[in-house]
Design goal:
45% helix, five-stranded mixed beta sheet, 634 residues
């Protein structure tokens, strides 16, 4: 049963773990653990929405929230102007007109007279950051086109695509028909648009159409459920947060922080926009009356201590009008999910299935840093700019795996790079299986390499920062071979049915000092500059020789100082020694005579011994130069 599964020791962290007094109490951790998992009669998990604190914001928190909004508005330009907002509304209106004309033409082509065809209408819905109200200047608009049953997916990617391509207001149109969520990407009057499609199995769309109602799920084909879920999830998030203004300000800050710290992007294994919105909304539920600065601080505090893999949920998971699979770790491999963030609309799904152990480690480190910086900001020891400092990804690790993506043209490269990025999580999972790889941290941005090779191929590189185990010796590091893992990944991607022959991948391990200059924005950091080559043995030998020379010079000086004196004094001493001899004027002293005699004797003895050795060994040495000497001769 779900109850026995969720309470099993291998799935949850023990609630008896102790935490510092400044962190979340054990009671709160236990509540977080149990809040998403209670026995239920439907799917098996029930949401506990009780808040942790209903305390109103303090004056200090209000001031911090005001300064946060000012920083986001003035320093980071996250709020668009009224003129830009009006332009977006005009673009959506123009797009709606194109959709209505398209729906009418499709019905005419399928046998309707013009009068009846004009009564058939499509609908445009927005979702994502624009619908949540947290978009900024230059952000795209996620839109959904809903049409009646006579309008098919083929009509969407056929007739509508053709109409948009012939429209002078549309540029850079790109249709992604075989994606998990099919989409038309384009630029409409300077505004980026992602347009999804849902075919509602109704002869005519009702007026008004409340697409978020669950009953419409039963009127769409299963292939359109994910497309429809974007609108329904966005609506559910806004409905479940207690204070929308607080939520929006905190979410703007979190999205900016996550982007600049390199932990934003579902495709490479980090939370995307929807997941971050759910995480912030959950904190808003825990602290329904808190100011935005308090919510932001608690996001870092709660998720740095969250008892993963306990899921983050905004509402109970329920069954719907049709048997579509929902997230359920007791029946599916969902128990393998590392950081489950569950969408609040039926069918409930994990929005972060791509997160790996490595990216979870990176996220927790960033949460801990964010919690530390928020403490400094509250004590007036730091500004908001410190929280939003860009992460220096290319000096964080000593080694990087470079995946260079190549294609003949820029258009082919765009298709190829999108496919590679969508599969890069599989390479991360395989690298994590190595006993020596502790962290495999993907860069959230592709680095443009320009035109490379003799063939003149267009290329971009995706980097994975590698953190190896401390048990890996430097000699083992040189022998570490990742070619089996990268080769398997390459072979799998080369099976793509839309791949051209020139679409290739090249793998190489780069040290930090060996990274190309184009990965750095601006001047190359000192940590990434190659160190000057030096011969340690030569340096050691030169140091020893210098020390010997200094010691010899000091010894000579000491001797000179010890024997130093005026010439007259030395002459007087010599004269005194001679006079103190055997009494004969002008003869050396007795001691000096004896010493000179002994030295002469020792010298004669040494010369005699040397002559004897040469007489004995000379013939033997001469024979050794001409033939091999026998043991007896030796």
């Amino acid at each position: 049963s779900i109850t026995s599964f969720i309470n099993s020791s291998h799935y949850f962290l023990s609630s008896s773990l102790s935490y510092p007094s400044s962190s979340i109490s054990e009671i709160e951790v236990e509540r977080m653990r149990r809040s998403s998992y209670q026995a239920s009669s439907s799917v098996g998990v029930e949401y506990d929405g009780r808040p942790i604190s209903r305390a109103p914001p303090t004056e200090k928190e209000k001031e911090a929230s005001a300064s946060l909004e000012k920083a986001l508005r003035d320093d980071y330009n996250l709020f668009e102007s009224p003129a830009d907002a009006l332009k977006r509304e005009e673009v959506l209106g123009a797009l709606d007109e194109v959709v209505q004309a398209w729906v009418m033409q499709v019905h005419v082509e399928k046998g309707f007279d013009e009068e009846r065809a004009r009564q058939q209408r499509g609908r445009i819905f927005t979702f994502g950051s624009y619908k949540l109200g947290v978009h900024g200047p230059g952000a795209d608009i996620d839109t959904l086109c809903v049409a009646p049953k006579l309008v098919t997916k083929d009509d969407f990617f056929g007739k509508l695509c053709s109409m948009l391509q012939n429209d002078a207001r549309v540029q850079n149109l790109h249709a992604v028909e075989d994606a998990l969520v099919p989409v038309i990407k384009m630029e409409f009057n300077g505004i980026d648009i992602d347009l999804l499609f849902v075919q509602l199995m109704l002869a005519k769309l009702p007026e008004p159409l409340d697409i978020v109602q669950e009953r419409y799920i039963g009127n769409v084909d299963e292939c359109f459920v994910k497309s429809l879920n974007g609108v329904r999830v966005t609506d559910a998030i806004l409905r479940l947060v207690p204070n929308k203004d607080t939520f929006r300000l905190a979410l703007r800050a979190i999205k900016l922080w996550a982007t600049r710290r390199g932990v934003y992007g579902n495709v490479v294994g980090f939370p995307g926009g929807v997941a971050w919105a759910i995480m912030v909304a959950r904190v808003c539920q825990y602290y329904p009356n808190a100011a935005a600065s308090k919510v932001l601080s608690e996001v870092f505090r709660l998720y740095s201590l969250w008892p993963y893999p306990a899921p983050v949920m905004l509402c109970p998971i329920t069954d719907g009008p049709r048997g579509i699979r929902v997230w359920n770790p007791s029946e599916y491999p969902d128990s393998l999910h590392v950081v489950p963030i569950i969408t609040p609309a039926y069918p409930a799904q994990n929005a972060t299935a791509n997160i790996s152990n490595s990216t979870k480690t990176v996220m927790k480190r960033e949460f801990e840093r964010g919690m530390k910086v928020m403490g400094e900001i509250s004590r007036k020891e730091a500004e908001w700019s410190k929280l939003f400092e860009p992460a220096e990804y290319f000096i964080r690790y000593k080694h990087y795996l470079r995946v260079q993506i190549r294609a003949t043209t820029a258009e082919e490269l765009k298709k190829w790079e999108g496919y590679v990025q969508s599969r890069i999580r599989h390479l991360i999972f395989h690298l994590e299986r190595s006993p020596f790889v502790q962290v495999c941290h993907p860069c959230t941005e592709l680095i443009a390499d320009g035109v490379v090779g003799e063939e003149g191929l267009h290329a971009k590189s995706l980097y994975l920062g590698l953190e190896f185990s401390a048990a890996l010796h430097s000699s083992q590091m040189k022998q570490l071979d990742l070619s089996d893992t990268t080769g398997t990944f390459r072979d799998k991607l080369y099976e793509w049915d839309r791949r051209e022959e020139a679409m290739t991948l090249d793998f190489s391990v780069k040290k930090r000092v060996g990274l190309p200059d184009n990965v750095f924005k601006g001047e190359r950091p000192a940590e990434a500059k190659p160190k000057p080559k030096s011969n340690k043995k030569k340096q050691k030998h030169a140091a020893e020789e210098g020390a010997k020379a200094e010691a010899k010079e000091e010894g000579s000086s000491a001797v000179a100082e010890a024997t130093d004196g005026s010439g007259e004094e030395r002459k007087k001493k010599r004269s005194a020694d001679e006079v103190a001899g055997d009494g004969e004027e002008g003869t050396p002293s007795k001691k000096r005579k004896e010493g000179e005699a002994k030295r002469r004797e020792r010298g004669e003895e040494r010369r005699a011994r040397r002559g004897t050795h040469l007489r004995l060994l000379g013939p033997l040495f001469s024979r050794m130069t001409t033939r091999r000497t026998t043991p007896a001769e030796v």
